[in-house]
Amino acid sequence: MDRRLFLGGLGAAAAALALPACSRTDAGATAPVTTPAAAAPTSWEVRHRYGTTAVTGPPQRVVTLGQTDHDAAIALGFVPVAVGGFLGGSYTPFRPWNEAGRTGPPPPVLDMQEIAFEKVAALAPDLILAVMSGVTKEDYAKLSQIAPTVAQPVDAEDWAVPYRQHTEHIGEALGKPDLARTLVDELDAAFAGARAANPQLAGRTAVCAEVFGGQYAVLGTSAPRTQFLADVGMTPHAALTALAGKGYNAPLSPEKIDLLDQVDVVVWSTDVAEEKKVFADPLVKTLQTTQQGRYVLAPNGGNDDLLYSMDWGSVLSNRWAIDQALPRIVRAADGDPATDANA
């Protein structure tokens, strides 16, 4: 099951105060009267997978079509006029970690998988971001006729751009490269602090497994959830993550489910309505990782933002995951069956 199928199955140091829709906020001290500030550039170019885009700034009407692009934009002080997401179901692109960066009603949500180009055009954007996305060359050609469009970085996988590259790429597009690097440095420091506070995780192996549409899968090293486990000090299980190669994930056949007992911690994801069914499956129920409580459940749906905090892997969601997901991972890894990581 690839990333697009997974997406189809799913229905703060830097967060700046928001102005009205498509406004931006500028952080920093006022320059002394005797030392005029250097003029900000009024145009710049951004290289991406489909070419080079010229941006005239600062942008005032930004549309984000990548799943987490609005997180980076909000962290950089720009509130989009519309954001990409899934239409229907309980999915929302507005989560605890990005709500503080905006005021007023949430912007409209556009389908980020089946792009309605006429709806994008009706918003009269002056910049379109499609970075954490799966936009094709054909999509890009249509979007770039509406407004300057910045697509995935040249060497990035669809839907799986690491937070460092993601934040800096969007920072470049928005004319805020220095602030973007600062945000990345601060998050790097937060991860370093998390590793220092939890040295017991060093050397422990982990893997992310999921069940959507009745299909078992394991996530590869490019998946943001796997990256999060590595960033907090754990070691992604080499043999299991290798099944996905450079892809987001790979099917795990029933005959190979017992490979999950080779790891110290499994992070499971499935639809919230399917939780009991998955853990009643003898293949999962009899695993040592299950019986010994060495797993964390990150469901899709319900009131738990754990899945998206790790799966988005953004400059904002990662901070929430450090605070909320990491303690559960630590409990799952403590070797004590009496400790309930999912309480």
Automatic annotation (TrEMBL):
The keyword Transport applies. Residues 61-333 form the Fe/B12 periplasmic-binding domain. Residues 1-23 form the signal peptide. Keywords: Signal, Transport. The keyword Nucleotide-binding does not apply. Its main location: other. GO terms for biological process: iron coordination entity transport. GO terms for cellular component: outer membrane-bounded periplasmic space. Belongs to the bacterial solute-binding protein 8 family. This is Iron complex transport system substrate-binding protein. It comes from Microlunatus antarcticus.
